[in-house]
Amino acid sequence: MIAVEYLRDLRKVSADDTLSDLLARAAAPFDRTEWWERLQRYCDLDPIFVVARGRDGLALLPLQTQGDNLSALANWYTFRWKPLITPGANPAPLLEAIARDLGRRTWRVSLPLLPEEDGTGSSLTRAFRRAGWITRCVSHDSNHILRVMGRSYADYVAGRPGPLRTTLRRKSGRVGCVVHTRFAEEVWSAYEAVYRDSWKPEEGSPDFLRAFAEAESCEGRLRLGIATIDGEPAAAQLWTVENGTAYIHKLAHRETARKASPGTILSAALFAHVMDQDRVDLIDFGTGNDAYKADWMEDVRPRYHLVALRTTSPRTWWHLARAASARLAKPGRRRLARLRLARRASPR
Fold this sequence. Notes:
Blueprint: E1 3-7, H1 17-24, H2 33-43, E2 47-54, E3 57-66, E4 69-72, E5 84-85, H3 91-102, E6 108-114, H4 120-130, E7 133-147, H5 153-158, H6 162-171, E8 175-180, H7 185-196, H8 206-218, E9 222-229, E10 232-242, E11 245-253, H9 262-277, E12 282-287, H10 293-296, E13 299-310, H11 314-345
Parallel strand pairs: 4-6, 11-12
Antiparallel strand pairs: 1-2, 2-3, 3-4, 3-5, 6-13, 7-12, 7-13, 8-9, 9-10, 10-11
């Protein structure tokens, strides 16, 4: 027998030893109660935590409500999303019990950013399918990583592309870099000033990032890099380190300093720090296929998006009919566009 319950506040479960132990095992920023609380407080997400309890353990799905849908409790700051499951427990019946129970609460569940290197994507897809949902799980993003494999920074950088090594050799002398491991007001102000003057869009939630950096500093996990040119901040990067992995969360450089390549020089300083001092096993560059990531990373892992639709809901069939209609209309729209182009191009 597996019981499923829904919680709004994980802070109220301190007397639940099994759940408290599971939460204490979090090995990445995105699996912690504090991360989810910041998403709620600073990013206006509405969390609901689904817990399935079996004889050999439990499974926790951190979700958010979006109208009459449910989706992963994640946003643009999240590298990947996955359930938390008691070590040694069989996840299949726990996940299937959750999927079956969710059918009484919503007609659509959307779970992006699923990893597959540990089987998360396929196990969730099977669970929803066995519970009677219509499922579609497709690759929708990429996660660039570097497996350090015991290399020193010197060994690693010797294998980088020639243009990158040339940039590091020619421009390192002008750029000064410091990797801060403790949060300080003046350092964070420098980070924010660089970001404002960079090519990056306006930050989604500056308060979220600041609170995250402060908390990571208290735990000794913060690696905040600042590059300067003639004493002025020119580039900034926010990394964290835990359990053998370095996470690259944010990076930016001032457009006016682009020719000096301060971002590249600062990246090198942070790679050297986490490889030679922190001795991490893995460096995680988050999601996205930015071209510059290929210069630093050596492997790419897909991230999947699972959408599950409840078969008994009229909303599902309306949704599927509209999607099918849109697919059928696409060829006609393409033909019409080609005809219009041909008419404009024909001699008059």
